[in-house]
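Chapter summary example.
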Amino acid sequence: MRERAISPEDLSRIKRWLAEAVVQSGLDYRNDLMTTEALLSDFRYKAGVPALAVKEIWKNFLGIKEFRRKPLTLYMHFPYCRSRCLYCFMSSQQSRQSQEFRSYAEESGQDEVDFYAPLFEGRFFDLWRVGGGTPSIMDAQDLRAWLEPASRRFSFKKDALRSIEFNPASTDLKKVDLVKSLGFNRISFGVQTLNMDVLRAVNRGYQDEMMVRRSLAWAREVGFPLINTDLIFGLVGESVMSFLDSFRRVAEMRPTSICVYSPPELSQTYLRAIKMGADEYLRYYEALLPELEDKLPRLAKQTGYRVVDFLHGRTWGFVSPEHSMSNDEHWGDASDRGSILGLGWHSRSHIFGRALYTRLAVPFGAAQPQYLCAILTTKEEMCRRIIRQLQRYSRLDYAGFRGMFGRDIREAFALEIGILRAAGMI
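The structure predicted for these 426 residues follows.
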């Protein structure tokens, strides 16, 4: 007997119901936010949307009075690395060609900025984030060519966090001094681990502890007020004790903050390298968590750091006691509450309550197909906010929700709550 094909309309209804069920039940699994966002919008992404069409959405959004106080984030993405770490799932490609970097800096740093900057005259960004890829593999001249137009054409609030990611292996004093002169006040070094066996196993054997120490010293020398180091827990071959040893040695270098992450979405390349399936790896990782969550906070306290952020099995944030965390304790919150203008290949943008779109890796041109774009509804924006709240804090901020949307959660989701109650799910 042939199965009846599901119509696009049926699929749309099913995905919406599932997404809203996830929102209301607060399911606790590793990628609930990404999964829900996909359910909400992926089936409606339209390929080949030109920059002129996206610009028009921004223009309409920025003209609405109620959105003028929403936070704005500028994100710039650099899509190249000297080599691919096996665990990485980010959008980047291996290259050591300075001409490629130079061409990209001209297109993404100049052409895109010139196209969008007039829309934002008189508007101040709350955050400026630069990531990749590995921005620091550019030489100082190309790095300036990429970042200087944005620092000149866009305006930032006086206390705005301006953060850039560097790799210790491609850091030098000239580059660190350059980004400080362009207004960056936070530099984040991707250290991952100091265990050389693990680094070699993930195709990152070019990095050593001396590079890390030297990079942090340069950042202090030029006067960076915020110096972060990122570590990754859960790479195969890294025991809890060896990871804690890396944390202790990094803490001795006295960055202002240390962020510990789990591998976010393991690439198939890494799973093949460790000869595990995704479920098998997850069981391996979760078996290590109880010991880590018992010992890591205690070690942090012993080394002079306090916990400011914790998301079970995913993220730990630690800061030094002399650091007030006045502008970066919740540095991701502004992008959660507002809109993101993404520049560069693979960058993801978010126009609050209006659209999500991703830049394609194609030459920039106003009338050329540039983006994958999905139009958002207000209800979907509400869903995204609720999932982030549940995922990060395991509770809902009713007052904050009402402040963002002008409606009570229980009123906005009365139908969905009724369905779930009838089904015995809540």
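To summarize the output: Residues 278-302 form the longest helix (25 residues).
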